[in-house]
Design a protein that fits this description.
Elements: E1 17-18, H1 25-28, E2 37-41, H2 46-55, E3 58-68, H3 74-84, E4 88-96, E5 99-109
Length: about 130
């Protein structure tokens, strides 16, 4: 997972990098997600978590990264996840010489097609 420092954006999507290998990223935004799962992870756990999430059928929609304060912006990350149709948010803070880089990955259940029926939009479960 890349660690690229940027200035903190006013909106998280300024630095959202969509997963270019996923051809239908935009279609996930049509889904309604009430309460995305949120996980604050240690930076060293990111690769392992990415492997676990993908093994459980989740796809990486993309990620955001920026330089900011020393606290996670949990509510903003969850709200952004709702907007892009992500079921899961993985948040990590990298600290280097007193500067904090925020890294947020957004995952969605691949088996949940965009749908007009609200019952089909509910996540199937949480990744532990």
């Amino acid at each position: 997972m890349p660690r690229i420092a940027k200035e903190r954006p006013d909106d998280m999507d300024v630095f959202f990098m969509a997963n270019r290998t996923l051809s239908d990223v935009g279609s996930y935004a049509q889904r309604h997600i009430d309460s995305p799962a949120y996980l604050l992870a240690l930076p060293g756990e990111l690769d392992n978590l990415d492997d676990r999430y993908k093994a459980q059928g989740l796809v990486l929609l993309g990620f955001s990264h920026f330089v900011g304060g020393g606290r996670p912006e949990k509510s903003e990350a969850i709200e952004y996840a709702r907007q892009i149709g992500a079921d899961h948010v993985v948040y990590a803070l990298f600290s280097e010489q007193g500067q904090f880089t925020h890294f947020i990955a957004f995952y969605a259940a691949a088996d949940l097609p965009p749908a007009e029926d609200p019952d089909l939009r509910k996540p199937t479960g949480r990744v532990n």
